[in-house]
């Protein structure tokens, strides 16, 4: 049974004040946080070391033929996706926040649904949907009375333009979430003052609301572009040679690890550039108001304008979620109706996915808890600098693309195995691979990549717990570990559960790191889908894709509930 925090405060106030005791030194929590931060930095240092080894004469080929084309394609892809996600996300956020029209309440949360569909699944679905012999083009030819695909066919979706469109319609919710939250908190008095001065609908949005929302747009766009840089499945399916695809093919096809590391370093430069652009987008954009923010009153649209607004809000949902999910449902139903059912290997892949995701979730949430708790203890001692650095460094993994992190982990894993085999040899045990090509390597990669989700959620949960509880527990002689276990963990359960759900689903969907680090003959749902797409077995892959989408709906539902609750709170004010 957990102690009642309120009772602890009362007892502490009534009890004689003990002598002041310093926190235990050295602080084990801070040391553990520093160790995890070092574990995040180590793959990046190893990546530079691996790249410096040279690629046995292949660097001239990489520098002359691979890197320029891949960098150009990646840059164009980032520019196109960035423009599309900002346009769709910002426009949709303003539409459902500033105007009232039929279906607005449904659209407000439905616009988050594309987050449930990974980019490689959308590309996988649309490749078959828009195939010249696929259902869409076949239906159009039937309506037009055309018999042969040679007489009528839509432009091929394979290529850079198709990749930009598909990624844009899947990743826009990152901008939509952050920008809508900003619009909901903008003071209505500012918008009313602009209307009083004669600003119309367009001027109100472009000259008042949009500049105020620029920091939120920058954050959302940076997240979407980092996801674009991390993508490997959609780019490869659609025939776009990006830096991520080049890293994978250089290592897997040519077995050139130094060459892959050199390309990965170029990707890291793009990551740094994206973060710098995001910081610049938020620079000198701080606004304060002494007035209590009152949410804007939505303007009611009528007639054709109302139905046009509904159509514009529904279009991203139809393209990014409804169409690919309906395709997956139809293909899965067709596969299940064939009589032979689902391959046993697919169920084995599903079990592998659940097992690895569960192990990664436990490790990641524990690491996030350590990072956030170390910072809380350091703040109590009024010396939070080192703990804050550990938290920031430990959260860098999410900004590093999965392929880059995986290539950087190969050398440390090999070093560990070499050292362990020396010890085993001394004990008379033969050499073996302990971490390389093991489930442990996958779990470690997931934990390093998704630690920011757990650390951020835990830090937000701890911020809501009064510091007086810490003081009361310390006054009663509780050590930091006991205080965390008896006081804070019961209060952190909702935050930890939400963080665990997000980490679990992200680990299920992760493809780039899994492709590079998985054991031999080890398949997850993501790698099963990747292999089926390469073979053109769309029916089997659709089952795996549908299972991933259904799992991805869970955090989207959580985000939608949070957004609805926040909207009701703002409206109540």
Please render the helix and strand layout as text.
Elements (H helix, E strand, L loop, with lengths): L4 H10 L13 H24 L7 H40 E2 L3 H7 L8 H11 L5 H10 L15 H12 L1 H13 L2 H9 L4 H12 L1 H17 L2 H5 L5 H10 L4 H26 L16 E2 L3 H33 L7 H37 L4 H10 L7 H25 L12 H25 L3 H9 L4 H30 L2 H6 L7 H11 L2 H35 L1
Question: Quick gist of this model?
Answer:
The protein is mostly helical. The protein has 24 helices and two strands. Strands 1-2 form a two-stranded parallel ribbon.
Percentage of residues assigned to helices: over 70%
Our measurement of the CA-to-CA distance between the termini, rounded to an integer number of angstroms, reads 38 Å
Tell me about the largest β-sheet: 2 strands, parallel
Structural class based on helices, strands and sheet pairing: mainly alpha
SS field, number of helical segments: 24
Spatial shape:
globular
What is the strand tally? Answer: 2
What percentage of amino acids are in beta strands? under 5%
Average pLDDT reading:
82
How much is the radius of gyration in Å?
26 Å
Q: Give the oligomer, counting copies of the same chain as homo and different chains as hetero.
A: single chain
* Poorly predicted ranges: 1-26
- Within the largest sheet, what's the order of strands? 1-2
């Amino acid at each position: 049974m957990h102690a009642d925090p309120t009772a602890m405060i009362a007892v502490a106030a009534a009890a004689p004040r003990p002598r002041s005791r310093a926190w235990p030194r050295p602080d084990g929590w801070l040391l553990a946080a520093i160790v995890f931060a070092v574990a995040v930095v180590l793959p990046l240092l190893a990546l530079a070391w691996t790249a410096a080894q040279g690629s046995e004469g292949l660097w001239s080929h990489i520098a002359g033929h691979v890197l320029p084309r891949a960098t150009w394609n990646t840059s164009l892809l980032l520019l196109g996706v960035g423009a599309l996600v900002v346009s769709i996300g910002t426009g949709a956020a303003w539409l459902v926040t500033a105007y009232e029209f039929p279906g607005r309440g449904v659209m407000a949360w439905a616009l988050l649904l594309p987050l449930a569909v990974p980019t490689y699944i959308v590309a996988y679905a649309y490749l078959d949907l828009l195939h010249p012999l696929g259902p869409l083009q076949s239906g159009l030819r039937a309506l037009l009375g055309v018999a042969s695909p040679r007489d009528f066919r839509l432009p091929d979706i394979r290529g850079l333009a198709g990749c930009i469109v598909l990624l844009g319609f899947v990743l826009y919710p990152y901008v939509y979430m952050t920008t809508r939250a900003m619009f909901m908190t903008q003071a209505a008095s500012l918008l009313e003052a602009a209307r009083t001065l004669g600003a119309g609908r367009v001027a109100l949005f472009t000259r008042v609301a949009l500049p105020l929302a620029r920091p939120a747009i920058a954050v959302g766009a940076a997240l979407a572009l980092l996801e674009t840089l991390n993508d490997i499945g959609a780019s490869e399916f659609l025939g776009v040679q990006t830096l991520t695809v080049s890293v994978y093919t250089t290592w897997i096809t040519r077995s050139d690890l130094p060459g892959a590391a050199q390309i990965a370093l170029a990707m890291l430069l793009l990551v740094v550039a994206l973060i710098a652009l995001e910081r610049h987008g938020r620079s000198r954009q701080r606004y304060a108001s002494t007035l209590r923010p009152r949410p804007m009153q939505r303007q009611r649209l009528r007639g054709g304008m109302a139905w046009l607004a509904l159509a514009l809000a529904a279009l991203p949902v139809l393209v990014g979620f409804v169409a690919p999910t309906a395709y997956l449902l139809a293909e899965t139903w067709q596969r299940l109706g064939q009589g032979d059912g689902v391959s046993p290997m697919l169920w084995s892949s599903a079990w592998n996915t659940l097992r690895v995701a569960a192990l990664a979730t436990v490790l990641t949430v524990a690491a996030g808890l350590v990072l956030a708790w170390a910072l809380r203890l350091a703040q109590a001692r009024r010396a939070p600098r080192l703990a804050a650095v550990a938290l920031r460094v430990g959260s860098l993994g999410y900004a590093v693309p999965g392929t880059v992190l995986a290539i950087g982990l190969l050398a440390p894993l090999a070093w560990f195995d070499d050292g362990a085999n020396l010890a085993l040899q001394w004990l008379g045990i033969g050499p073996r691979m302990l971490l390389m090509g093991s489930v442990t390597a996958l779990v470690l990669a997931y934990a390093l990549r998704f630690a920011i989700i757990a650390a951020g959620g835990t830090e937000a949960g701890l911020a809501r717990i009064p510091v007086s509880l810490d003081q009361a527990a310390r006054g009663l002689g509780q050590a930091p570990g006991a205080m965390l276990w008896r006081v804070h963990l019961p209060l952190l359960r909702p935050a930890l559960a939400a963080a665990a759900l997000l980490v679990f689903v992200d680990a299920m969907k992760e493809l780039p790191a899994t492709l590079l680090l998985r054991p031999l003959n080890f398949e997850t749902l993501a790698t099963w889908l990747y292999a089926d797409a390469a073979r053109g077995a769309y029916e089997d892959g659709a089952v795996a894709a549908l299972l991933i989408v259904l799992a991805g709906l869970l955090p989207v539902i959580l985000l939608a509930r949070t957004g609805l609750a926040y909207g009701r709170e703002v409206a109540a004010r």
